[in-house]
């Protein structure tokens, strides 16, 4: 892996990624870094974070698939999205994806259970169905003897509310930082793939999603490593 200075989002003044060292790597190299964390008989948690469209799910799924189901399980933060009915009641549905549209305390409590790895206890984690835009509870079994839990989500490094509790039990957090144009294009395509019209997809990606992305980028300095996965 090589390293390069961050150019952030186009090198704009005040860009929180400017000046950070970004490690240039392949997915295979990320897998090998994750493999090095595996210690039989000891539970470890690896966190992947980054702005929307950074490739967190893709990289996390590649790591888990490469390591195999007896070694690694993926537990995404997205399973802790508040349900739409709750977001409507709170007046936050138009900001879905912001840090206060998740059950952050529930996510932290789950990671604490996973870190404890009580012998003989399978923990069931929620997932998120993008086709429904809703979380589904108890969908991911995590057996007690699986040594590595990979979790991915936007706010692992946020220093407010219950997010620091989650960070406290994660052994390593890697921030994924693709080039900004690449990230935005991915995000727009993803919104289109799940039913948004092109204009609406672009408006959401460059509006609500971008505001979240700016906040998330400000947390990158707290990561154990900042990676640009090619």
Short key terms for the protein model shown above:
single chain, 230 residues, alpha/beta, Rossmann fold, 7-stranded mixed sheet, two-stranded antiparallel ribbon, 8 helices, 35% helix
How would the blueprint of this fold be written?
Layout (H helix, E strand, L loop, with lengths): L1 E4 L15 E5 L1 H9 L8 E6 L6 H12 L4 E3 L9 H7 L13 H13 L6 E7 L4 E9 L5 E5 L10 H6 L3 E5 L3 H14 L4 H9 L1 H10 L7 E5 L1
Helix pairs in contact: 1-2, 6-7, 7-8
CATH class: Alpha Beta
Instruction: Sketch the major β-sheet.
Output: 7 strands, mixed
CATH-assigned homologous superfamily: P-loop containing nucleotide triphosphate hydrolases
Distance between the termini: 11 Å
CATH architecture: 3-Layer(aba) Sandwich
- Please tell me how large the radius of gyration is: 17 Å
Report on this model:
The protein is α/β, with parallel strands linked by helices and 230 residues long. It has a single domain, classed as 3-Layer(aba) Sandwich (Rossmann fold). The protein is built from 8 helices and 9 strands. The chain has helices at 27-35, 56-67, 84-90, 104-116, 163-168, 180-193, 198-206, 208-217; strands at 2-5, 21-25, 44-49, 72-74, 123-129, 134-142, 148-152, 172-176, 225-229. Strands 1-2-9-8-3-7-4 form a 7-stranded mixed β-sheet, sandwiched between helices. It has a two-stranded antiparallel ribbon with strand order 5-6. Strand 5 and strand 6 (134-142) form a beta hairpin. Helix 6 crosses helix 7 (198-206). The model is unreliable at 4-13 (pLDDT under 50). One of its GO terms (molecular function) is kinase activity. This is Nucleoside/nucleotide kinase family protein.
């Amino acid at each position: 892996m090589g390293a390069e200075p961050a150019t952030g989002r186009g090198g704009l003044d005040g860009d929180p990624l400017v000046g950070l060292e970004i490690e240039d790597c392949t997915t295979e190299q990320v897998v090998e870094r994750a493999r090095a964390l595996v210690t039989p008989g000891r539970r470890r948690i690896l966190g992947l974070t980054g702005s929307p469209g950074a490739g967190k799910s893709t990289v996390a799924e590649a790591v888990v698939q490469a390591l195999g189901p007896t070694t690694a399980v993926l537990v995404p933060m997205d399973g802790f999205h508040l349900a739409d009915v709750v977001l409507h009641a709170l007046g936050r549905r138009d900001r879905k994806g912001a840090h206060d549209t998740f059950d952050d305390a529930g996510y932290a409590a789950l990671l604490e259970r996973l870190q404890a790895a009580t012998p003989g206890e399978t923990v069931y984690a929620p997932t998120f169905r993008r086709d429904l835009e809703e979380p589904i509870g108890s969908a991911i079994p995590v057996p007690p003897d699986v040594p590595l839990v990979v979790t991915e989500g936007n706010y692992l490094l946020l220093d407010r509310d219950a997010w620091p509790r989650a960070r406290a039990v994660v052994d390593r957090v890697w921030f994924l930082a693709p080039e900004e144009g690449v990230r935005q294009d991915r995000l727009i395509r993803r919104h289109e793939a799940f039913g948004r019209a092109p204009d609406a997809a672009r408006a959401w990606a460059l509006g609500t999603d971008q505001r979240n992305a700016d906040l998330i980028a400000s947390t990158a300095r707290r990561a154990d490593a900042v990676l640009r996965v090619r």
